[in-house]
Amino acid sequence: MEQKISGLSYRALILSTLAFTVCFAAWMINGVLITYLVNNDVFKWSSVEIGWLLGVPVLVGSVLRLPVGMLTDKFGGRWVMAIILFLSAIPMFFLSQANSYGTFLFLSFGFGIAGSSFASGVAYTSLWFPAEKQGTALGIFGAGNIGAALTTLFAPNILRLLTNNNTQIENWRILPQLYAALLIVTGIIFLLFTKHKKPSEVKTFSQRLAPLKQARVWRFGLYYFVVFGSFVALTQWLIPYYVNVYSMSIVTAGFMTTAFNLPSGIIRIAGGVLSDKVGARMVLYWVFGVCIVCLVLLMPPRVEIRTPGQGIMATKSGIVEFVSDSLIVVGDENSENEKMAFPLQTKKDGADQANIRFGIHHDKEGFLFLPTTLSWQEPIVQQGEKISKGQLISKGITEVYFQANKWIFSGLVFLVGIMFGIGSAAVFKHISNYYPKDIGTVGGIVGVIGGLGGFVDPILFGYLLTATGVWTSCWIYLAVITLISLALMRFAIAHKRVGVFSVPRETIMQEKEKK
C-alpha cells in the first residue's frame, strides 16, 4: 500500500528539524564559550584541555545515539525527543555556575545528550514519508546542522553584548541560561504540536541489534565518521584556528566559521535530493574526491622561513678598507691605487616587501597567492682584515613567506563544508535503502561512529598541534582518513570479499539496482 504524505507528515518534519537545530546549537556551545573564556584569561587551559572540553559533549551525544535510536523504534520519537530537550536543559543551566575545569568537563558530559537527538529525529521523521522520499525528508531534517552555524554566528555577539564589550566578563554566565531556556521552550512546542507514531512491527532486543552484524553498517559508520564527525570537529576547532593563525577577534572567527557550517547544514537538503536521483554511492564518490583535493591544498601552513641566500666572494686577495651595510671596499695588496668595490643588497631595498611578512602589519599585507621572498646581504668581514681570493665576505639571507591567504583558505574550507553536508545526507540515504525498518537502530550505530569523529578529532587536533606546533596538521589527518574511506568504499564494491568487510556478489547487484 502506497504511503501518503499528509499535513501531519510535514508538521512532524518541520518540528523535528526545529528540535534538532536547537539541540545541535546547544551541543556546539563549547566551541564559542571555551574560546571566549580562554582568550579573555578567565581560565588558563591548554590546547589539549580545550580539545577535551570540545570533544566530551560530542562523545556523549554520539554514544547515546544507538540506545536513543532503539528507544525511538520501540516507543516513538515524540516522547524521546522531548525528553532529550528537557534533560539537556538541566546541565546547560548549571554550566552558568561552573568555576573550574572539572566542573566544565562534568557538565559538558551532561548537556552532551543533546547530540543524541539526531537518532531520534531520523527514526521519527522517516516514519512519515515513503521510501522514495526519505532521502529528501532526511536531508531536510539533517539541515538542523545549521544549529552549529547559529551558535558560531550569534553566540560571540551575544557574549559581547552581555559582557558590555568584555568589560563585565562574569556576565558570560547568562549565555548557558539562555540556551537552557531555549531547550525547554522547544521541548514544550514539540510535545504540543506533534503526534505520536512508532513502527508497527514489534521486535525483540536481539532482533533490533541484528543489523549490527553486517559489515555494511560499519562501513556506513566509517563514511559518517568522515563527513559528519569532521564537520562537528571543525565547527568547534575553526574558531581557535582563525583566532591563532589569522589573529582574528572571536566575533570575526565565529562569522568565518559560520561560513563553513551554515551552508553545510542547508546543502544537506540538496544532498538528500541528489541521493534520491543519482544514488548515494555516486554522491559519496564525488564528496570524498573533492574533499581530498581541498584538504591537500589546505596543508601548507602560514609560514616564514629564513634560509642562506646568494653571498659575495672576493675576486682577489687583499685588505678590507671599508665596510658598511651597502658596500665593502677591498684594496689590492700589491697596489695601493687598485681597489675592488662590492655593493651589497640591503634589506631596505625590499622595504615594501618586508611589511608583508608574518607578524608585521598582517592586517595590511594584501592578497598574496604565491610564496613571496625577500633577499639581502650582510658583511661578515671587518675593516683591516686580510682576505684571500674566493673568500666569502658577505653572506646572503633569503626569507620566504607564505601567507596562506585567509580568503583562499576560507574558500577551500567552505567547499569542504559543502561536501560534508552532501555526504552526510548520502550516508543516511544508504541506511533508508537497506534498513527501512531499522533506521533507528542502524542510524543510531552509524551516528555513534560518526559522532565519535566529532569527539576524537578535536582531541587529536590538540595533540597534533602540541606535537608539531603546526596548525595545519589537522588537515593532513583529515586528508588521510578521507582517502582511506574512499579507497575502502571502492575496494569493497569492486571485490566480492575484502577482509572483515565482506560484500557478497548479490549485495553488489542490489546496490546497482538501487542506484
Quickly give the CATH architecture of the largest domain: Up-down Bundle
Estimate the strand proportion: 5-15%
Shape: elongated
Rg for CA atoms: 29 Å
Distance between the termini: 23 Å
Quaternary assembly: single chain
Summed up, the domain count is: 2
Can you tell me the CATH class of the largest domain? Mainly Alpha
Helix content: 55-70%
Task: Write out key terms for the chains shown.
alpha+beta; 515 residues; 19 helices; OB fold (Dihydrolipoamide Acetyltransferase, E2P); 11% strand; Growth Hormone, Chain: A; 3-stranded antiparallel beta sheet
Q: What does this entry look like structurally?
A:
This protein has helices at 7-27, 29-39, 47-63, 65-75, 77-94, 101-111, 117-126, 131-142, 146-162, 174-193, 205-209, 215-246, 250-278, 280-298, 351-354, 406-434, 439-468, 473-494, 505-514; strands spanning 303-313, 318-323, 327-332, 335-343, 372-379, 386-387, 392-402, 497-498, 501-502. With 515 residues, the chain is of the alpha+beta class. It has 2 domains: 7-195 and 214-301 and 406-514, MFS general substrate transporter like domains (Growth Hormone, Chain: A); 303-402, OB fold (Dihydrolipoamide Acetyltransferase, E2P) (Beta Barrel), CATH 2.40.50. The strands form 3 sheets. Strands 4-3-2-6 form a 4-stranded antiparallel β-sheet, with no helix packed on it. A 3-stranded antiparallel β-sheet has the order 1-7-5, with no helix packed on it. A two-stranded antiparallel sheet has the order 8-9. A hairpin with a 2-residue loop joins strand 8 and strand 9 (501-502). Helix 7 packs antiparallel against helix 8 (131-142) and helix 14 (280-298) packs antiparallel against helix 18. The longest helix is centred in the middle third of the chain and has 32 residues, at 215-246. The chain is elongated. Residues 496-510 have low confidence and may be disordered.
